[in-house]
## 1
Amino acid sequence: VVDWIADYLAHPERYPVLSQNQPGDLKAALPFSAPERGEAMEAMLADLDRVIVPGVTHWNHPGFFAYFATSGSAPGILGEMLSAAFNVNAMLWRTSPSATELEEVTLDWLRQLIGLPDTFGGVIYDTASISSLCAIAAAREAAGVDVRQQGLATSGAKLRMYASEHVHSSVDRSAITLGIGQAGLRKIWCDDEYRMDPRALAIAIDEDRANGWQPFCVVATTGTTSATSIDPVPEIADICDRERLWLHVDAAYGGSAAVIPEMRWVLDGCDRADSLVINPHKGLFVPLDLSVLYCRRMDVLRGAFSLVPEYLRSGEGDEVKNFMDYGPQLGRRFRALKLWFVMRYFGIEGLRDRIRNQIALAREFADWVDQSEHFERLAPVPFGLVCFRAHPLSIKEEAARSLEENPKLPHWSRDVEYVENYLDILNERLLEEVNRRGKVFLSHTKLKGKFTLRLAIGNIRTTRDHVKLAWDELNEVLGIANRE
Ligand code: PLP
């Protein structure tokens, strides 16, 4: 298996990035029931190649540019293998002191690396969705509503939280899961660059208080999912201070960039947050899953969750951390090992070089887009993501001609709508065809109603050649000779 993995990682490009499977292909290739007798590992590995690999979308392929591209780097994979071999349950300190203390050490290393003060403690969860859920549960605890004992319904509180209209859907899900409800999450207007408008936030809070709501939490985002925009955390922190609200920062994607000194600014104001999530499994070359929640009020987080049945009582007292106290789950994997491997193997310098390179590649791609007559950029590029779309010269010329001929606004706006619809369809087809060809894989979003292509650079194996290949594929499918 180790040899198989080494070979796979050495040649991910032999596969199409996006699986070409049709729904049901894998299910049809496997027997209805489990085998009666154990089988040979050789047969299992043969089926891995025959049945499983074709149905894999290769996130480890350097042509993977979709969603937020991530990397299972070799040291991270080796750390993961060792943690599977140990198979410890890191619920209590005594159930594996190394797991608990390594979690504390690596999270402290990472905290220093992204420039958060030592007033923040940390805990590892599986995903940012769960990190944010736990942070918002702590915010609810801090709101002074006795949800633990009474439940929300009996407490009668009408809790309200706030986030920008570009917040990740995991925050909506937290609101649903925690009984805040979607009605309890108010989305705040964004400016032209998709950043939360703090004035709109302040007005919303005033309005809600006047209408009997109890505001308790604001979620700001550093690196939104669609466009990697950065909410103005310092201004939002001022409002949270004034209004005594919990400030949670979703830096799941953007936080990793703060490892580079010249990008530290992306976390400006976050030292004043109550909690912040960063996903090493997104931007720091750690294999899924590993998300970190930093919290300035670990006692409140603990207060939201801690419940110790008799069989889990242990005698170490406050001298040690029992991480089971900081979330809804009891059993916990030894995830810190893979983070430790990654940080030690690459070192701070190695991590910085790689992240710097990814951001530089994204900027170069953005330059190609800006210089092309047939594409246009739809958002700034602070990190490794470029949002853009095809907008061929012929369409622009036709629209300009039509505007000249029909300068009256009603005509013109109908034409704009027509062109926008056409561009949406064109870009959707372009994306489908580029992905179908299998050399690269991009994804999409909608920005200001426009179908937007997203090229996310985050894979550790992606080089300039792969980015150029993506550009060539886009131009070729669009039927335009790329002169770059
Ligand atoms: N927050 C942001 C900004 C994201 O982009 C994402 C996913 O892409 C998440 C949270 C959720 O991450 P996870 O898959 O770790 O739950």
Note: The pocket of pyridoxal-5'-phosphate is lined by residues 68, 127-129, 168, 170, 221, 223-225, 250, 252-253, 279, 291 (CB under 6 Å).
## 2
Amino acid sequence: MNLSLKMYGTPILREKAVEVTLFNSDLKTLADEMFKIMYEARGIGLAAEQIGRKERMFVIDIPPTSDLDQNGQRENPEVKLPEVFVNPKIISHSESVQKGIEGCLSFPGITAEVDRWYEVSAEYQNLNGNKKIINAKGLLARAIQHELDHLNGVLFIDKISPVKKILLDGKLKKLLKETKKTI
Ligand code: CO
């Protein structure tokens, strides 16, 4: 596979991903490729669309040292990562939201504050097609929401306040220009 990171401005990032129905070795190969590209770019999450694929899936890996609340306690000690999330859906979430600084591998050098639910429960399938449920808090919950948005063509810059978006305008326009040269 010769896949690479797709940057802001690439049309696929605005498309809706397609439900996965075949849980075969090609899907495993795609997941391996996604992890490889994510680790190379030092990300904690990556959606298939970000490497130009339409499968409804994303991968997440958050190091234990980043899975901490304000008091330094692990948020999700029982969750085993890395994990591949196929056909994910949020089935419930907390009322409370948490502000946090977010970035995205498709937006190099750009970060912004985004509100996300503090806690989510999501249903998904693993690479074998088995149904699984994850209860996630904090950064992991944020990553799940961010990646799930990608699968619906939604990007984190859609979720920031209009005032803050104006501040990012120059950087976003520059990135769009760079991307147009490559597609
Ligand atoms: Co992203």
Note: Helices lie at 25-40, 138-151, 162-182.
